[in-house]
Amino acid sequence: MAGAELVLRSTRVVTPGGTRPAAVAVSDGRIAAVLPYDARVPSGAVVEDLGEDVLLPGLVDTHVHVNDPGRSEWEGFGTATRAAAAGGITTLVDMPLNSLPPTTTVPHLRAKQEVARPAARVDVGFWGGALPTNVADLRPLHEAGVLGFKCFLSPSGVEEFPPLDRGELGAAAAEIAAFGGLLIVHAEDPGHLAAAPPCDGPAYAGFLASRPPAAENDAVAAVVETAARLGTRMHILHLSSAGALPVIAAAKARGVPVTVETCPHFLTLTAEEVPDGATEFKCCPPIREAANQDALWAALAEGTIDCVVSDHSPCTTDLKVPDFGRAWGGIASLQLGLPAVWTEARCRGHTLDDVARWMATAPAALAGLRHKGAIEAGRDADFAVLAPDETFTVDPAALHHRNPVTAYAGRTLHGVVRSTWLRGRRIATHGEPVGTPSGRLVERGA
Ligand SMILES: [Zn+2]
User: Fold this and answer.
1) Considering its fold, how many domains does the chain have in total?
2) CATH code at 167?
3) How far is the CA of 311 from the centre of ligand 1 (A)?
4) pLDDT-derived band at 382, boundaries 50, 70, 90
5) Is residue 372 included in any domain, yes or no?
6) What family does the Swiss-Prot or TrEMBL record give for this protein (predicted)?
């Protein structure tokens, strides 16, 4: 073992080839080699013996609303990346909306990068935004390093980020295909939403009825049709409706370039258990019934769904009024994604290899981050150290994101993140960030 400054040793290292005892040698912030557990350590290398704790690749969360600058009272790069580090996430990708400005031009991207750079405790990438009016900005944003482009097919919730109609979707997709980019889509159909009974009041059933599965199913079909027709690489964000799965599975089987993510809340929370007035559970599309959740797990198991990412979308507590019509939609969960998903995954017979694939490897591949997402030679030395059998009870006040609201409050979860490492440097230990911010801004291909 030559030229390593750090060696992390565990009886359970999660690698692309499976979980096994290993010693991971780190040099210059990259993984130099994954060696046998008892490999001889070079003189001068620091050895970190993790015992039975599991060494996972640092998670890559490609769906985070940081809201900074402009709505930084909702969330900011300092608080979001503290929460990420504490939760085992080493790379997050910021969504282009809810900040002011939205990430829809190169100068807007630069404004966001300036705010993120000094505050980032984990690596941060950026999605650009595709609006009806900015087709000419897409290629410059791509060349400036954004990882892809987000669009909505229905109202986004903020007026500075309007949705695309079907014609505009095609125009954006054609432009993005021309430079080999990626289009990621909030897929709910505005016609179905407008035709559904409007929601007001505290009843969760009313909210659920206002965002029917058909709105997602039809929008997903439109995305698949666009990807198939134009050859654009397209990705379906936060899939909730299992009714859309057959169309996606069929498209993948015939080689349409489409990928899909779902979120911890769709995999671990059910409509049946949401108390009336509990708008910390409000998100769009909504958390649906238990049978729907079972189908999402089956789709993960068979590979129809690729990624599990947070869609962390917080706001100030005053916007979470106990009325599902008026409350801001969004679930705050950045720090809890790994234990939330692991808690349910283990009950359903899945392993940490599966969790690492869904929450690190696949999101890194989606975003084109070649050096992230797996423990193998040549990748960044980004790790999460997990005690998978230990439990804890979620106390919102102990979390690091800005406003102490989360749908997971009071839940007991399996999996305690012992420490998090970014490019060979410990950035969090026992749920607390350590050291000065050392995150970098990452571009496509990083
Ligand atoms: Zn989102």
Assistant:
1) 1
2) 3.20.20.140
3) 5
4) very high
5) no
6) Belongs to the metallo-dependent hydrolases superfamily. Allantoinase family.
Q: Is 132 helix (H, G, I), strand (E, B) or coil?
A: coil
| C-alpha 65 to ligand 1 mean position (Å) | 6
Which range marks the domain in which residue 68 is found? Answer: 58-367
- Which band of pLDDT confidence, cut at 50, 70 and 90, is reported for residue 149? very high
Q: How far is the CA of 63 from the centre of ligand 1 (A)?
A: 6
Task: Tell how far the Cα of 82 is from the centroid of ligand 1, in angstroms.
Answer: 19
- 7 contacts 23 by C-beta, under 8 angstroms: yes
Residue type for 110, please? R
Asked, for residue 360, whether it belongs to a domain, the answer is: yes
Full-prediction pTM beyond 0.70? yes
Report the mean per-residue pLDDT for the chain.
96
Distance 50 CA to ligand 1 centre (A): 35
Give a yes or no: residue 440 inside a domain: no
Give 407-439 pLDDT, tens digit per residue. Answer: 999 999 999 999 999 999 999 999 999 999 999
Cα atoms in the 13 Å half-sphere on the side-chain side of 191: 7
44 Cα to the center of ligand 1, angstroms: 45
Taking the centre of ligand 1 as the mean of its atom positions, its distance from the CA of residue 346, in whole angstroms, is: 26
Task: Render pLDDT for 167-223 as a digit per residue (tens, 0 to 9).
Answer: 999 999 999 999 999 999 999 999 999 999 999 999 999 999 999 999 999 999 999
322 burial via Cβ count (<10 Å: 0-12, 13-18, 19+)? middle
32 in a domain, yes or no? no
With a cut of 90, say whether residue 34 has pLDDT above it: yes
Distance 148 CA to ligand 1 centre (A): 14
On whether the CB atoms of residues 124 and 114 are closer than 8 A, the answer is: no
